[in-house]
Amino acid sequence: MSTPDSFEPPHSYQRFSVSDRVQHGTMVISFLVLVATGLPQKYIYANYAFLDGLIDLMGGLETVRLVHRWAATVLMLVTVYHVMASAHRVLVRRVPLHLLPRYQDLLDAVQAVRYNLGLARERPRGERYTWEEKVEYWSLAWGTVVMIATGFMLWNPVATARFLPGQWIPAAQVVHGGEALLAILAVLVWHFYSVHVRHFNRSMFSGRMAEHEMEQEHPLELERIRNGEQRAAGADEVARRERVFLPIAAVVALVLLTGIYWFVTFEQTAITTLPLR
Amino acid sequence: MMTQQLDRVLLLGPALLLLAAPAARAQECLDCHSQSGSTVLFKDGATLDVTIDKAAWEASVHGSAGVGCTDCHGDLKEYPHPELGDRSPRNLTLRLYTSCQQCHEEQFKKTLDSVHQRALAAGHKNAAVCADCHDPHAQRKITGEKGKLTAEARLGIPRTCSRCHGDIYAQYRQSVHGAALVTGNPDVPTCIDCHGVHDIADPTTAKFRLASPRMCADCHTDRKRMAKYGLSTQVLRTYVADFHGSTVTLFQRRHPDQITNKPVCYDCHGIHDIASKNDPRKGLQVKANLLRTCQKCHPDAGTNFPDAWLSHYVPTRDRNPAVYWARSAYNVMIPGVVGGMALLAASDFVRRRIDRRRHLERRHRPESA
Hints:
The complex is a heterodimer of chains A (about 280) and B (about 375). Chain A has helices spanning about 20-40, 50-55, 60-90, 105-115, 130-155, 155-165, 170-195, 205, 210-215, 220-225, 235-265; strands spanning about 10-15, 210. By secondary structure, chain A is mostly helical. The mean pLDDT of chain A is about 90. At the A-B interface, α2, α4, α6 and α7 of A face α16, α17 and α20 of B.
C-alpha cells in the first residue's frame, strides 16, 4: 500500500520542458550575439567611438559580419526546431494551443489597463499564458519572420534583385535595422519588466513555477490543474501518432534545413566581392 | 666676342664680387648667358644650353626680387667657371635643387615626404624636384591676394604636371573638372587640390583610398559651390549610410591603412576621367553605365540590381518610395510600440506599489485599532 502523492499538493508546477528551456537559451544567446554584431553596424554612420571599439573588440568589421551570419543561422535552426517541436506537441501529444490569441486576451488587456487606472476592481485572471506573454511571443515570432526575410535580401542582394525591384534591398536594410531596434527596445521594456523587474520569474530556467507565483500570475491554469483537468493522453495513443508524425516531420525538417542551407550558400556577394584590380 | 667679355670680367669681376648688389651680379652673368649658343658638355655626352632668356628672368619672381645667380649657383662665382663635376644635366639639377631650401624651407621640407622624393630615393632620377615644376629662371609669381593662387597659375598647374603625366593630363582635360578649368572656372579642382602640392602623397596606398571620400566631399558638400551647378550636397551622407560607405568610413576612422575592395567615390565615378552624371558614355545616371559599374565587383548583377544603390538620393515619396515608407513606418512604429509598452509597464509598476501599500496598511489596521 502506498500513500498517493497527490494527497500533498506540490509546491511548484512544471511550466517549461527541457526542450523549451534549451530553445529559449539558444535563442537568447543568438539574439545577444546578433545585437552585439548588428547594432554597431547599424550605427557606423553616427560615429560612436564606443560602438566602433566594440567592432574592433570582436575582431573587426569583416569578422563581425561573419559572426552575425553565423548567429543568424543558429536563430534559423532554433526556429525550425521550434516549429517541429510545436507540431509534435500539438499533433502527437494533443496539447491545446495555449498560445493562440483569443478574444479574451483583448478583454484581459483592456481590464489590465482599467485596473491599473483604478477603473476595474480586479486584475484579469491569467491562463497558462497571459495576454502579456502572448504579446511577447507573437512579437518575437513576427520579428523573427521579418528579420529572416529581410536578412535573406541583404545576404543575397544580387539574387533578390532578380525577382524584386532593386530599391527593396535598401528598404530591407531599413526594415532590418528598424525591426532590430524595435525588438531590442521591446525586450528591454516589456520582457525585462515582466520577468525581471516586476519579480524575477525563474521558470524559464528552472522549468518550474512556485505555487504562490501560479496563484498570482496563472490562477486559471492553477485552477484547472487542481481540478485535475490536465489529462494525459494514453501512452499507446501517443506512440501510434508518433509513428505517423516522425517520418513526415523528418521530411519537413529536411526541407526546412535545406532551405537554410540554400539561404546561407546562395550567393556570397555581400561578403566576398571581386578583389581590387 | 669672348675676349671682350673676358676683359670686362677681369677688370670688374673682383670688385663686383665684393661690392655689387645681387641684381648686379645677375646682370654680370647675363652679359654672357643671355647670348644664345652657349652650351655645356657633360661627361655622359649630353649638352645643355645654358642660355638664359633675359626678359623672362627679369620678369620672373626671382629676377624681380633681386635674387642673384650665385645664390643658387654658388660654385660658379669664379670666372672662368670651374669644371662642373656632374655626369649629366639631370645630375646637375639634382645637385642644385637643394639650394631652394635656403629661401623656401617650408615648401622644401614638405617635398621630402612626397611621392616624388621617395621615387628619387629609390633611384628614379627623373622624379620631379623643385626646378622641374618651377623653372627658377622664369617662374612668375603665382599667388595673388591673401596668398591664394592666381587664376592664371591654376590654369598652368595641369600643364605643369602633364610634362611628366601626359596620359593622365589627357584624361583630365576631357573630364568634367578639366574641361571646366580651361574655360576659367574657379570651382573645379586642379591636380594639386586632390593630390596636395609639395607633399604629394602616393595615391596608390590604402590610406589615400580610404581618405579619398572626404577629399571629394570637401567640395561636394560645400553648399555654396554645389548650388551653382545644381549638384547635391548629400553625396557623402548617402554614401556613408550605405554598406560600401559605412565600411570605408569605419576603416578610415579606425584602421586608415586597411585594404578594402569596397568602392570609394572614384571607383564608380572615375579618377581623372570623371564625367558628368548625365554623360551618355560614362554618366552614372544612365542606367546601362551604372550597371556596368556595379558589374565590376558584382559580375552576376542583373538589370534591377543597380537600383539597390540609391544614387545618392535621399528617399522620398516619389523617389525610392519603398525605402521612404519603410523608414516612415518604423519612425512611427518604434516610438508607438515601445512607448505603449513603457506606459503599460509603468502603470502596472505604480499600481502594484499602491496595492502593496494598501495591503500592508490593511494588515496593520486591526492591531492598531
